[in-house]
Write a structure and sequence with these properties.
Blueprint: E1 16-20, H1 25-36, E2 40-44, H2 48-59, E3 65-67, H3 77-89, E4 94-97, H4 113-141, E5 144-149, H5 162-182, E6 187-194, H6 203-206, H7 209-217, H8 227-238, E7 249-252
Parallel strand pairs: 1-2, 1-4, 2-3, 4-5, 5-6, 6-7
Helix pairs in contact: 1-2, 1-8, 3-4, 4-5
Length: 269
């Protein structure tokens, strides 16, 4: 049997993972995928009841799952969450910083300072605080995984949600920095950059026929992504299959980012 087909390549049994933003579309998909692969879970969201509903579904897979509610827009809550999460099952092996917000749309230079502070707090500062709390213990055990949820908005200019793109670009750079700094201690760090994914956050965009026509014309696969397709990448990065991947930003966008922007050529039969 080849190593590529060896049992357990994508299994997470024995791991404990913390997933933030666990009640949202991507967070829920990642939590359920991790549970399906055997990981025990600490789930966090500002909506404790919604997170508990996700935890209950995770427990149906036979794993342990507990909720630690936190509003990461509030300074200090991320630090407290890190300490509480590590105490639930004694450690965190994989940290998935998925919680985030878009913030206001419009010209970047017109951004109000309060909006700037809030978006950076939720998307970036909270991830930094969680890493500061949980990466050193991973390093002490000589193993650990950090996954930061970026976006294709981190990898190209954007006239509508530039503030969001700034924070997501910073997360991609944080993954590279963490990989270099903590790799010698066995800790891996990566970012995932989704494109348009079918989540509640994208509902408004998906209801806009004009936008969808333009976006799908620029997406080689001609469809939006599904949450489980992002969750699958999160499983890869946390599992043995991804053990030699670090410091990368994995794009999950159906090819949007690499599209030449031209109309498709009619297929020849």
């Amino acid at each position: 049997m080849s190593e590529a087909s060896a049992p357990g390549l994508f299994g997470l049994r024995g791991q404990v993972a913390l997933v933030t933003g666990a009640a949202g579309g991507l967070g829920q998909a990642i939590a359920l995928a991790y549970a399906g692969q055997g990981a025990d879970l600490v789930l966090s969201d500002r909506d404790a009841a919604a997170a508990e509903a996700v935890a209950a579904r995770c427990r149906d897979s036979g794993v342990r799952a507990q909720v630690q509610a936190a509003d990461l827009a509030e300074p200090g809550q991320a630090e407290a969450l890190g300490a509480r999460a590590a105490a639930v099952f004694g450690r965190i092996d994989t940290l998935v910083c998925n919680a985030g917000m878009q913030g206001p749309a419009g010209p970047g230079l017109a951004t109000e300072r309060a909006d700037w502070d809030r978006v950076f707090q939720v998307n970036l500062a909270s991830a930094q605080a969680l890493c500061a709390a949980l990466v050193p213990p991973m390093a002490a055990r000589r193993t650990g995984c950090v996954i930061l949820m970026a976006s294709i908005a981190a990898l190209r200019g954007n006239r509508a949600i530039g503030l969001y793109g700034l924070t997501k670009a910073a997360l991609a750079q944080m993954a590279r920095n963490l990989a270099v700094e903590w790799g010698p201690f066995g800790v891996r760090a990566n970012a995932i950059a989704p494109g348009l994914i079918r989540t509640p956050l994208a509902a408004g965009l998906m209801a806009d026929e004009g936008f969808m026509a333009r976006r799908l014309a620029l997406t080689p696969l001609r469809r939006v992504g599904e949450p489980h397709e992002v969750a699958g990448v999160a499983v890869l990065l946390a599992a043995a299959a991804g053990a030699f991947i670090s410091g990368q930003t994995l794009v999950v966008d159906g090819g949007t980012l690499v599209s030449d922007g031209l109309e498709p050529i009619a297929a020849q039969v």
